[in-house]
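Example A, followed by Example B.
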Amino acid sequence: MLSLLYQEGPSTEGIFRRSGSAKTCKELKEKLDSGAEVDLASESIFVTASLFKDFLRNIPGSILSSQLCDKWVSVMDQGNNEEKIKSIQRLIEQLPRANVVLLRYIFGVLHGIEMRSEENQMNAFNLAICIAPSLLWPPVSSTPDIESEFTKKISSLVQFLTENCCRIFGEEITSLFGEI
């Protein structure tokens, strides 16, 4: 999925913003969940993006860990960019290794898409609005006003992560997928 998003995402206007066919997504999710072979390359890239966001939303406790939710939310309240980057790196060190590996690939994809935002209309802000709710959610439900404020803070964090992914994850993030 990520490889396909890395290949086609940068040249697709509105990637992660537009939804794939709900029926197709449901059918493919059922196939994937059953372990059946699925050829995502023959589907709309929007279906792949929708399936990927659904996959992220189904990670127990979220990929960024709901247990660290308050710490993630407070990162953007810190001083300068260097302090934010150091705080983010310390939080990443507290995540399970599998989460960190997946995050590196996710932000490799987001970086590639952002680099061609003139073509695809998906700058770091737009990407964050679309993908942030799939990366972290609070451990308990709350009022709509509190959830709205939370979503804004997490979107701001994901925008910062996207814009600074090379400094946070290392320059090699731009070549994780090799020459596709």
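Example B, a separate protein, is given below in the same form.
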Amino acid sequence: MGKRVAVVLAGCGVYDGSEIHESSAVLVHLSREGAQAEVYAPDVDQMHVVDHVKGQPTQEKRNVLVESARIARGNIKDLAKLDVKGLDALIIPGGFGVAKNLSTWATQGKNCIVSKEVEDVLKAFHTAKKPIGLCCISPVLAAKIFPGCELTVGHDTECEKWPYAKTAETMKELGCKHVNKHVTEIHVDVKNKLVTTSAFMCNAPIHEIYDGIGKMVKEVVRLA
């Protein structure tokens, strides 16, 4: 029987939900590793809905669980029903939904609140010493909840290749150790069993993002 890995989504689409390519890469690499993905999302309204053509918010209302079900092909459960006892690891892909629907990072930065359901799940895996994989913006959840942990969101100096590098600085202000890594690399915090990679925090070819996520998934499964 392969490892059972919880994958927590935050909606569907980079600007207001989970990043679709990252989510798909996680599911593909879990399958390749012989692991069974169990997909969850919170049953809450999105902070807002963004028109992905215009990049502008609309007046629509959408539900995080309902939208995440698009990525999961309907095979999804309410995050409130997650039971850490039957699972071996946790992975949270990136996308602005992490900073908008799973936390208030998008509007409050280091002063954000992580939603209680998400915080409880992260703490449950951490307490059980089960590995947690995070990519793109999702390492900010660990930065907020696990003071002193080691993470990467890529590089800490802003440039064309690393447009979101200020995130690393904010994580340092929370007392975390940020480790600069290329998009195809991962960082492993051995003590906290956290595996992180930058994914779309980097302006890189999509296959490099895919490869970095693959290394993250492989290490999470190995640690499980």
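On Example B: Helices lie at 20-32, 64-71, 96-100, 105-108, 116-127, 139-145, 166-173, 206-223.
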